[in-house]
Amino acid sequence: MSLDNNKISNKFKKGLELFKNKRFAEAEKLFKKIFKYNPDDVLINFFLGATYFETRKFSLSQEKLKKVISIEKSHRDANFLLGMMSYNENKFDEAKNHLEKIYNLNTNDTNVANLFAKVLIKTRDYHKAIRILQIELEKKPNNFDLINNLGYAYLLNAEINKSIKYLSKALELNSNSSYTYANLGTSFFLKNDLLSSKKIFKKGLEIFPENNQISFAFSISELSDCNFDAGFKLYEKRKYGKDYELNFNKNHKEWSGEDLNQKVIYIISEQGIGDIIQFSRYLISLKKKYSVKIIFAVNKNLKHLFNFDGIDIVEKGNLNIKFDYFQYLLSLPGIFYKIEKKFAENINFIKINNVILNNWSEKIKNLKGPKIGFNFQGDPSYILDGSRSIPINYFKDLFLKDNLNFISLVKGHGELELNKIILRKNVFNFSKDIDNNDNSFEDTVAILKNLDLLITSDTAIAHLASTMEIKTWLLLNFSPDWRWHINMKLFKWYKNLKIFRQESDLKWDKVIKEVRTELNKSF
What are the residues facing 350 on neighbouring strands? Predict the structure, then answer.
């Protein structure tokens, strides 16, 4: 039986009318009845899938819409809805496949172009996203979504002046977007314009007083400006984001400075590995201040790093533990600063596997001359990685010093970048041999112990080496994370760390030139 059948055709028309009038539950019932008679019909499958989408039955929607594209692979609306659902589920490669297909068939479809650009931003293809958005803006110069997404793409691509230009225009068109306030304030922060950054965040919080994204971004500006009371208070807003599902507020008491003598406290590691390594020193602060049992929860791959006496290291997610208080690791600096008005000094707590240490010592002992470790690539999933990671081509100038041995400590995305250049004889790429077991940084720690110097961008390795008191040169963008602002203004987190920082032009050329000059002096 086909849709030409009058009875089925009338039901279908009625279903369409209900769909257009957003009476989706009623439309769903009709389309399901028709589907029984026409299970392979493209229109029926599409509108049933679209109705499921509107009633948030996404699995059923995907099932029907995939049936549509199995029959008609370039179906615009089915691919668009599938792309949207994949995007919302963080399945960006799937979303890209659906949207690229229909974008290439019709580059004049603004809705497809805009969503496709958002997917490209998520897959870090910023240049292509920017190009698509620029083309669309020529047709629709005052489209808020296009302008806002273009500003965001420029932000992530570390083109900060352009980011400020487009995000400012987006706010002029729509002052009711919390994301735009957060991103524009962050753009000003990366220009080291803390005054403008805080002005934008304050304005955003006037409209969205409970917005955690703006509050957290605002906290970074306040802490960078050494306004610690306000900054640490705002910094607590991070706990209400989606990454902080393990929150004990309902069943356990959150520690905020109470007497911990004869108590048990459960400390939860959080954020990146570098954050965990840097601020684990506060576990020692707790131990020194109180007669307290400390349980520190970390991911399994990091447990081996910590050499703490009298502190229990457990795998994160283990909730079968009794304790009196809990707290997240990065709340400890704020609590202790409020009590003591100072920051904790570095303590080398990194545990070394002597077998692995001996293996690496043997492996590189015959390298003649100083041994310099290097890393240029941070975690590419970090939202502002484009501002802090350094293109490998800049490091090529450092490798020209033939009397030095350069040992790569990059992994993952950095390996791919390193493979794009031809390495000189004094550059050693051990990436494939490093940290391939379950314990993160186990080989890296051993290599660091054999180095004369580490040169690195702002990555976890900078914190690892500095905690180990290895001589470290840290290459920073113009306006880095709040801890480095404090480092440059007030307090040195690490004794053996030297900072080389971008100037206001946000370029790496002068930074590398300074490093070369310092290498010539030191070696």
Answer: 306
Does the structure show a pLDDT above 90 at 466? yes
Whether residue 2 is predicted with pLDDT greater than 70 in this model: the reply is: no
Q: Are 149 and 175 in contact (CB under 8 A)?
A: no
Whole-number Cα distances in Å, 395 to 462, 473, 521: 16, 13, 18
d(CA 148, CA 165): 10
Q: Is the dihedral of CA 18, 23, 29, 31 positive or negative?
A: positive
The DSSP bridge partners found for residue 259 are none
Region of 352 please: left (phi>0), alpha (psi -120 to 50) or beta. beta
Helix/strand/coil for 451: coil
- Alpha helices by DSSP H, listed for 24-109, are 24-37, 42-54, 58-71, 76-88, 92-105
Phi/psi at 194 (5° precision): -65, -30
Q: CA 465 to CA 400: how far, in whole Å? A: 24
- Is 90 exceeded by the pLDDT of residue 502? yes
pTM beyond 0.85, yes or no = yes
pLDDT per residue as tens digits for the range 132-186:
999 999 999 999 999 999 999 999 999 999 999 999 999 999 999 999 999 999 9
Q: Decide: 388 and 476 in contact? Cβ < 8 Å.
A: yes
Asked if residue 274 lies in contact with residue 255, where contact means CB atoms within 8 angstroms, the answer is no
What are the start-end ranges of the H helices in 89-227? 92-105, 110-122, 126-139, 144-156, 160-173, 178-190, 194-207, 212-224
Structure tokens at 392: 């490998």
Query: How far is the CA of 14 from the CAs of 18, 31, 32, 227, 294, in angstroms?
Result: 6, 10, 13, 63, 66
- Token digits of residue 464: 């690892």
Query: Alpha helix (H) ranges present in 225-353?
Result: 228-235, 273-279, 281-289, 332-340
